Amino acid sequence: MKIYTKSGDDGETGLYRGGRVRKDDRRIVAIGDLDELNALLGIVLSMAAAPEISEPVAAIQCDLFALGAQIASPDPATAGTALLGDEAIARLERTIDHGETELTPLTAFILPGGSTLGAHLHQSRAVCRRAERHLVALYDGALDEPAHVALRYLNRLGDLLFVLARWSNQLAGHAETEWHPAP
Fold this sequence. Notes:
The protein is mostly helical. The chain has a single domain (12-95, 109-171), classed as Cobalamin adenosyltransferase-like (Hypothetical Protein Ta1238, Chain: A), CATH 1.20.1200.10. The protein has helices at residues 26-47, 51-72, 76-79, 86-102, 116-139, 145-171, and strands spanning 12-14, 20-22. Strands 1-2 form a two-stranded antiparallel ribbon. Helix 2 (51-72) packs antiparallel against helix 6.
């Protein structure tokens, strides 16, 4: 199979078992955000030696592929697309809860950065939040159960990426920089 098909040369792309849409369609924008997030997490995995960081990130990458397929399917049930479920959200929450037990409680806002790994996790968090916003725009208030789970997953994932950024900085011995408003 060739990597190029030329079928997208006119600005359209195919959905999973569901026709074609413009490449700037809300659905494709949301899928693009998930793809960008997954690529950033690939960078994170290439740098993360600690299993506290690498193990959840590897699982998240698989979840993001499943979520992308779900969004790319106009009718996931008919297409037989696997849907993210509450167990994926519960896994994120368990990891957040465990990570928070390892961290000093926040008393101020912190600036993104720290170690290179921590900075990439902060960037991943920001891309995750963008994906969440674009998914909200795609669903436009029409939240069936899979859409609601997808939004809850991304919301929790943004929280987890923040915790993982802090945790990776702590493991690397990088102090957090607190933000204080100018007087």
